[in-house]
């Protein structure tokens, strides 16, 4: 289970270091394999899945009938753009250049542990979304039942 927020630096070659707090977990539970793909719902964000979790997501997305344009769009963004990465000896992974460009992830980024996956945000988009508050009209029935 991943959780927490970490400021990340992306080097000139497009590599980022997996935070030391997660390295053993990525090596053991993830078989040292992660899958990077677009977050189809939020601009400026990539998803990083442990490989086993990715297989479940990939299979469920690919099971959608491709006769619908929305399904094909989701399949392209998630499955078509997916890249398998393995941390090197220094715990670094290489982010695909096309994904960095599309999301605006440059030198500074933010890695969020979201339970079953990571979200990697461009610093600017993370600040923008974090500063947005949830208004009373935005609260769903499920949210209203939470005890916060």
Q: Could you explain the architecture of this structure?
A:
The chain starts with a strand and ends with a helix. The strands form 2 sheets. Strands 1-7-8-4-3-5 form a 6-stranded antiparallel β-sheet. Strands 2-6 form a two-stranded antiparallel sheet. The protein has 6 helices and 8 strands. By secondary structure, the chain is α+β, with helices and mostly antiparallel strands. One of its GO terms (biological process) is negative regulation of DNA-templated transcription initiation. This is Transcriptional regulator MraZ. It comes from Rhodanobacter fulvus Jip2. InterPro entries: MraZ (IPR003444), MraZ_C (IPR035644), MraZ_dom (IPR020603), MraZ_N (IPR035642), MraZ_sf (IPR038619), SpoVT-AbrB_dom (IPR007159), SpoVT-AbrB_sf (IPR037914).
> Regarding CATH, which class?
Alpha Beta
Q: What is the CATH T-level topology?
A: Chemotaxis protein chec
Instruction: Tell me the strand order in the biggest sheet.
Output: 1-7-8-4-3-5
Q: Any guess at the CATH architecture?
A: 3-Layer(aba) Sandwich
GO molecular function, one term: DNA-binding transcription factor activity
Family: Belongs to the MraZ family.
Protein name: Transcriptional regulator MraZ
Organism: Rhodanobacter fulvus Jip2
